[in-house]
Amino acid sequence: MDLNIKTIGKQGETIAADYLEKNGYEILETNFQNNLGYRVGEIDIIARENETGELAFVEVKARKKGSWGAENPELAITRAKYKKLTRIIGRYLRQNNLDDAPHRLDAIAIEMDMGSRKAKLRHLKYIYY
Length: 129
Fold this sequence. Notes:
By secondary structure, the chain is an alpha+beta fold. It has helices at 5-22, 79-95; strands spanning 25-35, 39-49, 55-64, 103-113, 118-124. It is built from two helices and five strands. It has a five-stranded mixed sheet. Strand 3, helix 2 (79-95) and strand 4 (103-113) form a beta-alpha-beta unit. The radius of gyration is 15 Å and the shape is globular.
């Protein structure tokens, strides 16, 4: 079965959200879109780490095993993508009166093995350029 990129991305986001919930995070929003009359961008998952109260803005990158970039899907987060994500995070914080809330940008990298239906997941905290 050959899955398209959007399907793999959605499956990756579901796997990431399940992982976060099992590891002490409360999912606040998924697919938050920053709209200014036009679509500027999206944050895949916004979660609160229960232990610290810190907001985690999570970019999920999923790839099929054997495809280009599958071993390090997080490398798809370029400097330009990072800048866009930080602008969206700022907008979310302002919209929700959370300017002073502790927060960070994380990445969850997932390599999906479609044959065995298993996934390797890495949670990278505090990513930056």
